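Example record for the data management plan.
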Amino acid sequence: MMRRLNATDEAIFDYVVVGAGSSGCVLANRLSAGGRHTVLLLEAGPRDRSPWIHLPIGYGKTMWSPVHNWRFWTEPDPNMNGRKLYWPRGRGLGGSSSINGLILMRGQPQDYDAWAQAGLTGWGWDDLLPYFLRSEDNDDDLGPLHGRGGPLKVSTIRARHELIEAIVAAGESLGVRRTRDFNGLDQEGVGYYQLTARNGLRVSTAVAYLRPALGRTNLRVETDAHATRVLLEGGANGAPPRATGVEYRHRGRVRQARATREVLLAAGALQSPQLLQLSGIGPAQLLASHDVPLRVEHRDVGANLQDHLQIRLIFECSKPITTNDDLNSWWRSARIGLQWMLARSGPLAVGINQGGLFARALPESATPDIQFHFATLSADMAGGKVHPFSGFTMSVCQLRPTSRGRVEIRSNDPLAPPAMHPNYLSTELDRRCAVAGVRYARRLAAAPALAPYVRREVKPGPETPDDEDALLEFSRDHGATIFHPSGTCRMGVDANAVLDERLRVRRVDGLRVVDCSVMPTLVSGNTNWPAVAIAEKASDMVLADASAPAAQANAVASQSTVA
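Corresponding structural encoding:
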C-alpha cells in the first residue's frame, strides 16, 4: 500500500529507507524490484545533477561544496596535537559514492573471515563474494573472482602514465609484485587501480542502482528530506518497541512516513548512529544530557568508530608530466578538456589517484597492513588548489587500525552535526604503523626507478629526520582522513552489539541499519564496494524475512495499527 506524499497526508510504505548513499540506493533498487513491495527512499541532499559529480576528477570541486558535502569537522583530537580534522561526507543521491575517489576495493578475504570467526554467521568471505560478484560489471577479464553484467560499472585504467610506471617499478624493486587486480585472494601488489567509472563518467550507486529503478511506481524518492527521528511505538511491560516510520523535514515542513514492514537506516557511519540517538536508542547518560527521552538503552550506539588515517607525502617532480602542470597551464587545461570531450579519456576521466600499493610495513603482519594512493598531482590537502610546481602525492594509510573513537549527538537538534571523536593513533600498534608507512614512502621515493623523478621532498621535507619521534610528530601534525569512517552500529553476537547478524537493531522490532557502520572491524581498503555488498546481502535478508509466514502476520498487524 502506498499513498503519494503531500503537505497534509501521511504516506504508508512497506519499507522506508533513510539515506540514498552507497548502501541506500542498492536497497531501494532491490527491495522495489518486481513491484511486490512499496519503498520510500529519503535523502537529505539534492539530486545528482551537478556535472562535477559525474566527472571523475570533479571531486576536487565537490570536496568543499556545501550543496553536495556535509563538510563535517571532528572534535579536537588529543592524539593529533589537538587538531580538528575535516571529514567530507556525500550529501545527495549517491551519497559519498558521488564524491569519492572511485577506487574499486573490497579488502582482504581475511577481513570477512574474521567477522565469521567472531560468530557472525553468513558474513565470511565465501558468503560475501557472491554479492560482490552480483554487483559488478567489470570491463576486464580478471577471472572468476570478478563479475560481469552487474549494475556497478568498473573500468581499468588503460593509459599508462610515466610517473605511475616509475612508482610501480620502484615498488617492484622493494619486492612488491606488479598486479592487475587488488581484489584477488592476495591483495599484496603495486599497480593501477580499477575505478567505478565507464566511458569517462563516474558510476555512483545513484547511477548504477537508483537511476534504473526510478520509473517504478512502487518506489518513491524524496530529496531534500532530512530524517529527524525514527518513530517508535509500544515497548511497555518489557516488550521491545517497534519502528513504525520516520519523521523528517521536507521543504520546510515536518512530515511522517509510515513503514508497515521495516525502517532501514543507510545514512552512513556518522548519521545512522546520530539518528538512533536522536530517536532515544543509545547510551542512557548521553541521551539524558541532551534531553532525549530514552526508549532503548544501547551503550555502543556511536562507539567503535574506526577510520583509515592517511599520511600524505608530497614531492616536486623533476619533469613537467603531472596533473599540476595540466591544471596550471591554460592550454594544457584546454587540451585535457578536449581529450575528455572527444575521447572520454585523459586526466579528467580517471580522477586523482591512479596507482596503488599494498604491502607489509610491520614485521609481524601476515598480510598487507598499509595501502598507498598515488596521485599525479599535489595540494596542501585533498581537494585543495594544486601547487604551482610539478607535484605528486603518496598517501599511505594503515589498513586495520586498532584505535577506536565515537560519534555522539551534541544536542537534541536533529539538524546539528554530530560530534566526532576519531581518537586516531591512540594505540601503540597504530603509532608504529604510521611511522613505518612514512618510512616506506621514503624508501619508494629513493628507489632507483623513481629517484630521477624526485626533485625534492616537499612534505615532510629534508628537515624532518627519519627517527621515530619526528615521523610520529609529522603524522600527528598532518594526518587526515581518507574518508572511511565505519563501525559505529556494529553487528555482533555479544550483549553490547548494536545489531545482530541480520543487521536488526537489538531490542527494537522492525529496524535495521545497512551501511558501513555495521562493520565490527574496518576492512583493508576503500569502503564503497563493501557498502554495496553489505546492502546487496541485506536486501536478500529483508526480502527473505518478508516472505516468512510469521513476518507476514506481523506486517498485517502492524499495517492495521498505523493505517
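Summary line stored alongside the record: The domain at 158-192+309-398+425-478 is CATH 3.30.410.40 (Cholesterol Oxidase; domain 2).
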